[in-house]
Each structure stands twice: as C-alpha cells, then as structure tokens.
Task: structure prediction
Amino acid sequence: MHVPVAIVGAGPSGSLLAWILRQRGIDSIVLESRSREYVESRIRAGVMEQNAVDLMVKSGIGDRLMKERYYHNGVGIGYKNEHHFINFDELIGIGVTVYGQSEVTKDLLGGLANEGHNVLYEAPVTAVEDHHTNKPKVKYTHEGVEKELTADFVIGCDGFHGASRKSIPAADIITHEKVYPFGWLGILCKSPPMLDVALFSHHPNGFALVSMRSDTISRLYLQCAPDEDASKWSDEQIWDELDVRVGTDDFKVNRCEIFEKDVAPLRSFFSEPMRYGNMFLAGDASHIVPPTGAKGLNSAFADISVLSAGLIRHFKNDDSSVLEKYAEVALRRNLLTQRFSWTNTAMYHIFPGSSSFDRRMQESQIETLISDELTQTVYAKAHTGLPFEYWPEL
Ligand code: APR
Ligand code: PHB
Result:
C-alpha cells in the first residue's frame, strides 16, 4: 500500500493532522498502537491557548468545544495564603480556555470515525525506514500480522515513547533533557469549579494547582515526590494539604468525593531536527514540557498548524516552501514554550535542597509578577498568546 501521508499515533497531534488534511481531501492513514477507548480516556491537562481553540473551530471540529468550554479572562496566583488575579484579557485581549484534553481527543477521533477515516487502532508501528527516499517505509503489526506500507511523507505523532523519533540514527539527532526532582499528585473529584479561574500556588510545602473540568468535576494537583505512591495519600490528607497550600482566610477547598488519583513525573525534553528526510516529528514525539502552564497540547497544535499548512500547499499548490521551513519554524516556537514551561515550573515549585537565597529569589519573582504590569503582560503573552506562524488554508 502507498499513501500520501502516513501518520503514526492518534493522540491530539495525529488526530488533528488527519482531520485537517481530510478537510482538504488529502488522503492519510493513521496507525495507533492502542485502542480508541484507551486513547480517549487518557487523563491529561485541560487548558487551551486561543490559537489552539481557533484552529479547532476553523477546521470545523470546534462546536462542542465552544459550547462546553470555560472561558477565563486570566489566572489566579496563590502566594503567602492570599489569592491574586492576573487579567490576561485586559492586558493582551486574550483569555484562557479550559476544556479537557480527553474531550479534544474524543471530538477529533469521533469526527474521523463519523467520516469513515482510515484510523487503524491496535496497530503499533515497529519501524520507520528509508527516510531519505521518496517512499519512506512504515512497518507495523495489525491483528497479529506484520505489515508495511510506504508514503510520500511519514509523520511521527507517536508521543515521547513512540517509534518515529527512535528511528533516527543517534548520530543524526540531538536531544536535550531536564528531569525535575518532583512530580504532581493529581486528583479528579466531584465538585463544581472551586474558584472562578485556575489558581497556581507557591507555598513552602510545595506547589499546588486548583483547576476544573466541568460544572461537576474539578481537577487539583499537589507537588509531590516524582515516585510518590498516590494510593498512600488518604482523601483527608490530600484535602488538608491543599488547604495548607491554597487556603486563605476566606477560601477552603470543597472536600468532595475523589474518584481518581494519579502521579505524573515532570520532565522537559526536546530533540532536533524535527524533520529527518521525509519523516516529520510533531508534538510529544519531539518535545515534552512539564505541565505547569499546560503547554503540551498547545505546542502539539502549533506544530500541526505549520505542518498541515505545509502539506496542504505541497499537495494542492505544488509549493513545498512551508514544508521546507517546518523544522525551523516549529523548533523556534517550541523553544519559547520550553523556556516558559521551565521558568514557570522553577518559579512555583519548591526544589529539594534549595538554599534560602534560591527561595528569596523565587519570592521576589512572584512578588514582581503579582504587582508589575509589564511582567504580567509578558506572562500573559507566554501563557496564552504565543502566535502560530502558519495556518492551514481551510
Ligand atoms: N505506533 C503507533 N502509535 C503509537 C506508538 C507506536 N509505536 N507509540 C505511541 N503511539 C501512540 C500512543 O498510544 C498515543 O495515542 O501515539 C499517540 C501519541 O499521543 P500523545 O502522547 O498524546 O502525543 P501527542 O499527540 O503529540 O499529543 C501531545 O498530549 O501527551 C500529551 O501532554 C501531551 O498535551 C500533550 C499532547
Ligand atoms: C489542568 O486543569 O489539568 C491544568 C491546568 C493548568 C495547568 C496544568 C494543568 O497549567
């Protein structure tokens, strides 16, 4: 079999790319190692930048998003047991959208299924070969049978552990990594939003975040050890610690039923180049950010905006100029995102073994952020307003 575009992975990157190409009549196949149910139920962050929202809407898959999302005009910052509010909308005219990433995936995979798109689930890719030819090869397994196909372009959207990036010889790829000495203990619980906006809190015991998913479900996090056993935390301990870190004289968390506890380690990672011959990497396959600021999904969408624009021009207008620029343009934006996610993580979290000097510097940074409008404007732009350099013609 030969297809114009072979997409490895049906997470947000792969499903959005397949969806956008489909809208322009460009044929693709998606190979996904897991089942559709598994992919749709993976719990991830829930904050979208305005450009990511606009891309969903412009590509015709944003109806439920626009109906069910929360639009917040900014974020809260918890500091010394007081809450401060930064109004992004007033500062730069752009707010924040809260919509679970699992809902984004459901919309995209549902849309593809409704149109009968070729998404092969439980079809793990084992190798990508012949990158530098005009027929790169993808080897995969489906229903116990080893198969292969060729494509004009292979797009590696298979996340951090996927096969695409690993198919690049070590001598031809550079990787950069930072592993943080902490993780996030996350809970999902049965509560309406506890605050009007998401609140990021810096506290001597560690970072905490109060967020939301819907009118009936809230999502909250506590900084913890990277290898923390979530089941060792009783519900009461979690609520007590959240109150210590985010409570004020007027605000206490809503102690409701917790129905999910998980621990995620924090890591920054990126690789270059984002193109190898006729294989392109997008999303988590090429870069991972710590969740502080929720850039994972948004960076993936930014990559797909440029890549889909490039592929559409290539196939529809015989113009490869944007595709040729993909690796450079996508990496440039990803460096901004990496820097924001790293500095944001460093500002809010308590690093084990940090000195009193380090902590006073952190406090000074937060005090500047909650009081200085210029600092807030830069923060607002990085948090919610980074541009997408190229948009697909839809
Ligand atoms: N073959 C086929 N599919 C694979 C393979 C493989 N060898 N390895 C992994 N996959 C699939 C995974 O099962 C997953 O569904 O690729 C998909 C990758 O999805 P994500 O990891 O969600 O990555 P991406 O689509 O780039 O989305 C980035 O999702 O991971 C979050 O925080 C991240 O928000 C960010 C966004
Ligand atoms: C979330 O709601 O899961 C969330 C919100 C903001 C972040 C990270 C995660 O920065």
The longest helix spans residues 321-348.
